[in-house]
Design goal:
The structure is a homohexamer. Chain A has helices at residues 3-14, 170-175, 183-190, 194-202; strands at 57-58, 73-78, 92-98, 103-108, 114-120, 123-125, 128-130, 135-138, 144-148, 154-160, 168-169. By secondary structure, chain A is an alpha+beta fold. Chain A folds into two domains: 21-53 and 66-166, Sandwich (Jelly Rolls); 171-202, no CATH class. In chain A, the strands form two sheets. Chain A has a five-stranded antiparallel sheet, with no helix packed on it. A five-stranded antiparallel sheet of chain A has the order 7-6-9-4-11. In chain A, helix 3 (183-190) crosses helix 4. Chain A is globular. Chains in contact: A-B, A-C, A-E, A-F, B-C, B-D, B-F, C-D, C-E, D-E, D-F, E-F. At the D-F interface, loops of D face helix 1 of F. Strand 1 (57-58) of chain B pairs antiparallel with strand 8 of chain C, so a sheet runs across the interface.
C-alpha cells in the first residue's frame, strides 16, 4: 500500500524534487528550525530571539569535494538543509568538483535555474566548451550535464534560484528507484529487452551529491 | 554555435518544459493571440473587443485517440496552444487513451500537478491499480507512468495545474535529443557500453502526445 | 459582536470563499493534516514519514450524485478537504450531475478558473449549448450556471485551478445568510418591496454541493 | 455566437472582474500606456523616458461625489485606469460618498481586500456600526455593503489590494446583464415566479461607480 | 557572535524590513494569532472558530498623532501587528500627522508601494507640492519623504500594499544602529571625517513611527 | 514638472531599484530582447527561433575588476542587462573585487537576497570576519557592506535572487541625487547644519558598480 509513497520518498532521497518559484518572504528572516515537528509549505522558523549570526554562515566551500566515485564528480550543496538562514530567501549554492574526465550526469533541478561559473578547468556541455571565468545558464527544468574534458581537475560554483532546488538524476531515478519500476514498463519505454532492464536495475547507482 | 539551442528547442518540441506556478490573471480574460510577433512571459492577448465565445470552447474530447503506435497510448492535450481562452488562467486538460497493454511511458510535467480520473478500464501505476471512477494525484515534477493492464481500452481525463504544463518523456529526451547527447556521457551515466547507447540513439522514439 | 463573523462563517459554510492563485509548493508533497490545531495560510502537512499512497487517492467519482433536490443537480467536490494529497498543489475536481432540466444555479468560484467537460447529456450556459465531449472555460470569478436542457441526465467533470476553489451561490449568499442581511439593504439593492425580501429570506435555500 | 462574450463584456463593464493577487513589479515603475494596441496580462508600460511626475499624481479626491441617484451613494475610484503610475504596483483607492440613508449595495471585489476608513458620518455594515475614525477590513471576495444610517452625509476612503480590484454588484450582474440570463434559470435559482424575474430584468440598474 | 543578529534585530526594531509582494490567501480569513510560539512565513492564524468581528476592526484613526518630537511628525500605523485581521490580506494603512514644518524623513518601504492621500495642509515632496485631496504614488522601495511647508498641521492617509510594509529610515539605520557600524566604514562611505561619524553616532535618533 | 521623475530616474541610474520576487517563467526560456520598444513588467523576449547559445553565455568573470577608485572596490554584475538569457529566470551574479582596505559601501538590494562566497582574502562585515571559502547570507533588503581588512586583494562571488536585483547605495542616493533633495530636509533628517549638507551634496559620489 505504502509503496507508491516509498517510491515518492525514494525520489525525495535520490533527489529533492521541488517545483516552483519560492514564495516571497514576509519578514526580515525566518531561519529554518530543524527541530520542529510542525510541517508547513517550506520550513517553520526558529524563534527570532534565538537567531545567531552563524545561522547565516557556512564555511568550507574552498574544500575540494571527494570525486573518488564511479562518476568522478562531487556536488557540495549549500541550501536550506545545511544553511538554515536561507529559509524563505529563494536562493542556494553548490560547489561542483570534477576529476579528469569526471561527469556530472544528466539531471534536472525541478525548482531552480542554475547559473554555473567555472573557476578552474574545462567543461563540456551539450556542444559547448566552458573555460575558466565562463558563466552558463541552465533554465529551470532543463536536463543538463557537465563533463570535464581536461586532464586536470575542474571546479565550478553553481547558484540556484531556490532555497531547495532539488535534483532528479535521470538514470538513478528510472533504474535505481525502490521499489523498482515494473520492468515491462521500462522495457517498453526504452525499447530494450527486459533482461537489459533487469540488469540495469541490479546495478549500483552512484549519487554524486 | 546554435546547437545548444537546438538541444533546447528539441527539448521544447519533444516536450514543452515549463517550470513554475502560473502567475495570476490581471483582467477578466486574456485570450492568447496566436498571430502576434511580440513575445512575453506567457502569451500576448488578442484585442478584448475581438474575443468570441469560441475562444473559450473546445469540442471533440469524446473522440478516442489513435493508439496505433509503438506505445499503444495517445494523449490529446487541451491547453493554451489549442484553447486560447486558457491563457493566464492556470489550468489545462488532457484525454489519455490506452489500447490493451498500452503504456503512457515515464514522464514528468515540470509545471503542473496532474489529477487523473479513470473513466474506463484498469490502469497500473507504481504498485497501485486504478479502476473506473478512481482519482489519483501526481504531484508536480514527479516522474510517473500509466500501464493499461486490462484486455480492454482504457480512457482517462487528466486535469493539470498550468495553461502549459509541459511534458518531459524521459527516454525520448535522453536518447532521442537532436543533436544527440555525447555517447560518452550517456554510457557513463547509464553504466552501459557505448554501443548500447549508439543503438538506442539510432532508434525511432515514439511521442504519444 | 460575533455576528459579523457569523456572517463570514456562514459565507464559508454556504461557500468556501478563497481568492487567489495558490502559492507554489516548496517540497515534493505536503499532505493536509486534518488533525492539527495549528492554522496557517493553507493547511499544515502531516509528517512525511506517515504519508500513505491513499493520501493521493480518491474513489467513487463514477457514482451518480443525488439530484433529488429543488435544483435537480448535485456537485461532488474532490478537493483538499477530502483528498488531502492535493494540499499545496493548486488543483481540484468536481463531478456535476444534472437531472432532466436540473440547474446548477448562478455561482462563482472566487479562487479558481473552471474547465468543464461534458461527459453526457446537453447543457445550456448563457446562450451556448454544450454537447457530449465539449469543453468550456469559465474564467476565474465569472458568475456562471449550467441548465440541463435535455430529457436525460447530464454529467460533467469540472477541473478547477485551486486546491480549495470556493463557491459563492448568489441567491443563497444574499437571501440565505445567517444572520440575515438587513431587509432595507436588500429591498433597496434589488428594487423590490421589503415584503418580497422578507419572503425570500424566509425560504429554504438549497445547496447542491 | 458572440453573446457569451457580450455577457462577459457586460460583466466587465458592469464590473471589472479581476481575480488574483497582483504579480510583483520587475522594475522601478511601469506606467500604464493607455495608447498601446498590445495587450498583456496587466497593462503595457509607456516608455520610461517619457514618464512624467503627473503619471504618479491624481487630484480631486477631496471633492464630494454626486450621490443624486437611486442608491444615494457614489464611488470615486482611483486605480490603474485613471492613475497610470499604479500599474504593476498592486494597490488602489476609492472615495465613497453617501447621502443620508444612502446605500453602497452588496458587492464583492474579486481581486482585492478592502480596508475602509470612515472619515465622516456613521455607517452600518452587517450588524456593526462604524463611526468617524473607525477602520474595517473586508477580506478579498467577501460580499459586503455599507448603509449610511445617519442624517448626514458620510464619507469613507477605501484602500484596495490591487491596481484593478474589480467590483461585482450582485443585483446588477444577475438581473441587469445583457444579454439577459434566461428567466427560467433565475426563477429557479431565486425561487420566484418568472414574471418577477421579467419585471426585475426590465428595471434600470443603477451603478454607483 | 550574536552581534550580526543584533544588527539585524535593530534594523527590525528601527524598521520592519520586508521585501516582497505578499503571497495569496488560501482561505477566507486567517487572523494573526499573537499568542503562538510557532513561527512561519507570515503569522500563524488563530482558530477560525474563535475569530471575532473586532479582529477586523480598528478605531481611533481620527485622533491626531503626537508630533512633539524633533521631526515634528508622527506616523500611526495600522498593520498586521495591531489589526490582526489583515494577516494574509496584503494591505495596510498609516495616518501621518505633521506639525508646521514637520518632516517625515527620507525612508523607504521595502515591501510596499505607498499611495498617499493628503486630507489637510500642504506637503512638499521632491520638487512637487501636494494640496488637500491630492494623491501621490511612491513606488515600492523608492526613498521618499514629506515636508509640511504650510503654517498649519497637515494630515495624510497612506495605503500600503503589504500587511507589514516595513520602513527603513535612512539616517537612523546608518548612524543609529546598535551595534554601531564601524566608523571607518561610514567615514569612507560618506566622505567625512571619523569625528563627524562619531558625533553622528552619538546623537539620539528620533523614530516618528 | 519632470523633476520628480528625474529623481526617480537618477535613483534608477544610481541604482536599479526593483522590489519583489520575480514571477515564474511561463515557457522554457524568454531571452531578453534589447531591441524592442514594447515595455512590459520585466523584458519582452526575442523570437525563440532566433535564440542562440550565446544568449545563455557570459565570459570574463575571471578578470579582476578595476578597484582604482575612491572606495577601492569594484562590482562586476552579470544580470539580465548583460546576460539576456537570465530574463524570467529569477537569478543573477556579481563578482566583487577589493583592493587592500577597499570598501563596498553600505547598500541594499531591494529585490534580492545575496549569498556571498569569499574566494580570496579577508572581509569584515558588521562584527564578523570572513575567510576564504566562507559563505554569508544577506537577507533581501538588509543594508550591508564589506570591508577588506587584509593587506591583499579580496575577491568574492555573489549570487542574487533576482534577474535584476537592484542596488541602493545609501550615501549616493541621499546626497548625490539629481535634482538634489532639499537641504532643509537633509539637515533635519541627519541633524547636521545645512552647510554640511551643502558640502556633502557638492562632492563627487563614487559608484563602484
Amino acid at each position: 500500500m505504502a509503496s507508491y509513497v516509498f517510491a515518492l520518498v525514494v525520489l525525495v532521497l535520490a533527489s529533492t524534487q521541488a517545483f516552483a518559484t519560492d514564495p516571497s518572504q514576509l519578514q526580515d528572516f525566518c531561519v529554518a528550525d530543524n527541530t520542529t515537528n510542525v510541517f508547513v509549505n517550506g520550513v517553520v522558523c526558529k524563534n527570532p530571539a534565538l537567531v545567531k549570526a552563524d545561522d547565516f554562515f557556512f564555511s568550507g566551500l574552498d574544500k575540494t569535494g571527494n570525486t573518488k566515485n564511479a562518476l568522478g564528480s562531487k556536488v557540495t550543496a549549500v541550501n536550506v538543509n545545511n544553511l538554515f538562514g536561507l529559509n524563505t530567501l529563494g536562493i542556494s549554492l553548490a560547489r561542483v568538483d570534477f576529476a579528469p574526465y569526471g561527469l556530472n550526469p544528466p539531471h534536472t533541478h525541478p525548482r531552480a535555474t542554475e547559473v554555473l561559473t567555472l573557476l578552474q578547468g574545462r567543461l563540456y556541455l551539450f556542444t559547448k566548451t566552458l573555460n575558466k571565468g565562463d558563466v552558463f545558464v541552465f533554465p529551470q527544468g532543463l536536463i543538463h550535464f557537465q563533463l570535464n574534458i581536461g586532464r586536470e581537475n575542474a571546479v565550478a560554483i553553481a547558484a540556484l534560484s531556490s532555497q531547495n532546488p532539488g535534483v532528479i538524476t535521470v538514470a538513478n531515478t528510472v533504474f535505481g528507484s525502490n521499489p523498482a519500476i515494473n520492468d515491462d514498463v521500462l522495457a517498453k519505454a526504452f525499447q530494450v529487452d527486459k533482461k537489459v532492464v533487469d540488469h540495469l536495475q541490479s546495478l549500483f547507482w552512484t549519487e554524486n551529491h
